[in-house]
Amino acid sequence: MIDDLESKIVALYAKGMSTRDIQELLSDMYSVDISPSLISKITDRLLPKIEEWQNRPLDRIYPVIYTDSIFYKVRQDGKVIKKQ
């Protein structure tokens, strides 16, 4: 139960919710009273992983593909069809 609750807190925090928003949500949904400071302690466990991701080595070149398309509606053989 505790691990599941911690993973929910981390997921909510990762989606941009504040510690107080998470506190209110957990209180409303699960009738659990957790302080914002405890939520901060739980989310602080992510900091090493975040720093590791931010400092990872990057490739020199990344391939990028741009695609674009325009569709026109035209009348052909008495019907309106889409053409590229």
Structural commentary:
With 84 residues, this protein is mostly helical. The protein is built from 4 helices and 2 strands; from the N terminus they run H-H-H-H-E-E. The chain has one domain (2-83). It has a two-stranded antiparallel sheet. The longest helix has 13 residues, at 2-14. The chain is elongated and about 70 Å long. The chain starts with a helix and ends with a strand. The model has no long low-confidence stretch (mean pLDDT 89).
- Summed over residues and divided by their number, the pLDDT gives a mean of 89
Strand content: 5-15%
Q: Classify the helix fraction into a percent range.
A: 40-55%
Q: What structural class is derived from the secondary structure elements?
A: mainly alpha
Number of beta-strand segments? 2
Based on CA atoms alone, the radius of gyration comes out at 24 Å
Helical run tally = 4
Q: Regarding quaternary structure, how should these chains be classified?
A: single chain
Looking at the structure, what is the overall shape?
elongated
The profile of the biggest β sheet is:
2 strands, antiparallel
Domain count: the total is 1
Could you tell me how far the N terminus lies from the C terminus, measured between alpha carbons in angstroms? 54 Å
Strand order of the largest sheet: 1-2
Low-confidence stretches: none
SSE order in H/E notation?
A: HHHHEE
